[in-house]
Amino acid sequence: MSFSTPSKAELKDMLGMLFTDLEVQDCDPVDMGADDLFFGLYIDDDDAPATLVACDLPFTAYMGSSMTMLPPPVAADAIKDGKPEDMMLANIKEVMNIVSRLFMLRGGTHLRFSTLYPASEGLSETVSGLLKNIEKQMFFNVEVPRYGTGKVGFLVPAVTQ
């Protein structure tokens, strides 16, 4: 199975269906050992782990807050406290569902979002295994109007036989 990473324009178009005036810029990869990351695991039609999306706490808080119009100070407090609210996490899972399509833009196998793993709670062996075998990755700064900027990355492991 082969998957692509999206371009800046593709991510902006996809998230633009949810948010207007969103700004997206390429950025350097994040430190995969950071505790403030959240990993979305995607599985194929055989329920096999396939790809990951990594997002930092600011992306999670800002994007998760803006979807249900939680006030920007609530997102800022979640970042300061190091823990997003349950509503933010529920909303970021919906974002993870939507962005799954970005892996399949160039004829990739069907994927679906499975689980969100907070790095602060420890990663599953599945996620850790995928992280050790990343072949392609693309990271972006995403500025959510009125809220702030966070990072999101698309991670594609090498195909193993």
Protein described:
The chain is α+β, with helices and mostly antiparallel strands and about 160 residues long. The termini are close together. It has one domain: CheC-like (Chemotaxis protein chec, 3-Layer(aba) Sandwich), CATH 3.40.1550. The protein has a 6-stranded antiparallel sheet, sandwiched between helices. A hairpin with a 3-residue loop joins strand 5 and strand 6. The mean pLDDT is about 95. About 30% of the residues lie in helices and about 30% in strands. The protein contains 5 helices and 6 strands, in the order αβββαααβαββ.
Alpha-beta classification: alpha+beta
Tell me the series of helices and strands, N- to C-terminal.
HEEEHHHEHEE
Quick one: biggest sheet?
6 strands, antiparallel
Average pLDDT, all residues:
93
Assigned CATH superfamily: CheC-like
- What name does CATH use for the topology? Chemotaxis protein chec
User: What's the number of domains?
Assistant: 1
Uncertain spans, ≥5 residues at pLDDT below 50? Answer: none
Content of β-strand = 25-35%
The CATH class turns out to be Alpha Beta
Number of helices: 5
Architecture, CATH level 2? 3-Layer(aba) Sandwich
Q: Work out the radius of gyration.
A: 15 Å
Task: Give, in spatial order, the strands making up the sheet with the most strands.
Answer: 1-5-6-3-2-4
Broad shape: globular
Distance between the termini: 10 Å
Q: How many beta-strand runs?
A: 6
Helix content: 25-40%
